[in-house]
Every structure is written in C-alpha cells, then in structure tokens.
Amino acid sequence: MIYAGRMPVTVLLVDDEPLVRAGLRAILSAQPDIEVVGEAADGAAVIPLVRQLRPDVVAMDVRMPLLDGIEATRAVLRTVDRPPKILVVTTFENDEYVYEALRAGADGFLLKRARPAEIVHAVRLVAEGESLLFPASVRQLAAEYGDGDGRGNPAARAALERAALTEREAEVLRLMTRGLSNAEIAERLVVGTETVKSHVSAVLAKLGARDRTQAVIAAYESGFVAPG
After folding, report:
1. What is the pLDDT of residues 193-214, one digit of tens each?
2. CA distances from 64 to 71, 103, 118, 178, 210 (A)
3. What's the CA gap between 17 and 20, in Å, rounded?
4. What is the mean pLDDT of the chain?
5. Which residue range or ranges hold the Response regulatory domain (predicted)?
C-alpha cells in the first residue's frame, strides 16, 4: 500500500452529475488509504468547501453550468492558502478545456470512463506529486492546443530564458516531460533520489511552476521540447 502508516489522502468530488459523484465515491471510498470528505455539484461551491475541509485532492469536472473547472481551478489557486492538488475529470480526452485547465494550474486529468484501478492510481499519483499523470496525453494536448509551432510562443520562450536552468536542471526537465518519476530520473542519471528532488525543486522555482505538470506545460509552450 502506497500510504501505509500515513494519513489517508482526502478527496473532494465536484461534478454536476450525481451519478458520477456516486461512482467516484464508491470507487475511492473502497480504498483504505483514500477518504472522500465532501461533494459539490458546481465549481462555484469549491472555494468554501476547500477552506472548510482542506482536502488533499479535488476531483473536479471540467464542464459545469455555473463555474467550470477551469475558472474554479484559477479561483482556488488564487485565493486559497496551501491549495489542494486538482485532478480534472472529463468525458473527452482530446479536449481544449482540459488543456486550458492544465494551463490554469490543474495537476492532471482523468477520463470519466477510466477503470476503477486507473481512477485510484490517478488520485494517488497526483497526491504524491512525483510523477506526471498520463504524459503521452499531455503531450498530445500540447501539440494540438499549445501556443506556437514548436518554437514556442514568445512569452513562454522568454520566461524559460530568464529561468536560466543549469545543464543538469534542463536534463531533469526533459525527463520530467517524459513522465519519469524522481526515482526513475535518479536511476537514469545515476544520482540519488534526494539529488533529483533538489533539481526538481530548483526547476519549479525558476520556472515559477507550482508542480511538475506546470513545468512540463511550460517546457512545451516555450519550445524547450517539441510536443509532437
């Protein structure tokens, strides 16, 4: 068990479809290391619930009638201290709304038709924050909806230049875009895991990214790596 001996990962479910919320609750609550602490039917209710319940992860529909998952993500990250991880839940994988949610600060996305084991894995992975969820899908979204033509948009390219990554940090960022975990990067570079964690932290700080998903989006948008 990934979280044996630790507090369970707490999750807030946000979706306007009661059946979707019920299904996710049943799947996640069956896990001894995950606890569903609340539900909401629209993104407009997210901020007060996050402040009250302090969940580790918010599993949030990307399309909702009053406040969609994109704006709700922006609002949470803008107004909540120590915000939770945000996992966007969507019907369609190749969806511009999903990419915009990732750009807004979401930590990953999950298909509503995903198998129960995939849903549980996604919540655990996003909570851990040491791997990129579905790297191939993120790359595909960046290729279709990202700015620029592979050379990067000017603003993102300038931001990457200002970051002044070292050669090793740039190497770590390239491996992050491929979805490698800290342990896998450490094995690839023949260094310790703590060394990799330090490099990842430096990359995030220099890019102004809240997590590795945002760093990977920045890498694609700047043309640092080609999404295709």
Report:
1. 999 999 999 999 999 998 899 9
2. 10, 18, 23, 31, 25
3. 5
4. 89
5. 10-127
Chain-centroid distance, C-alpha 104 = 10
Nearest Cα neighbor of 47 from 67, 27, 25 is 67
List the structure tokens of 168: 């090793």
Task: State the Cα–Cα distance between residues 157 and 60, nearest whole angstrom.
Answer: 30
pLDDT for 189:
95
Residues in CB range of 198: below 8 A, 6 or more apart: none
pLDDT higher than threshold 90 for residue 96: no
Whether the per-residue pLDDT at 1 is higher than 60: the answer is: no
- Is residue 82 classed exposed, middle or buried when 0-12, 13-18 and 19+ CB atoms within 10 A define those classes? exposed
93, pLDDT greater than 60: yes
Cα–Cα distance measured from residue 44 to residue 58, given in angstroms and rounded to the nearest whole number: 13
Whole-angstrom Cα distance, residue 173 to residue 168? 9
pLDDT for 148 beyond 60: no
The pair of structure tokens assigned to 15 is 């979706």
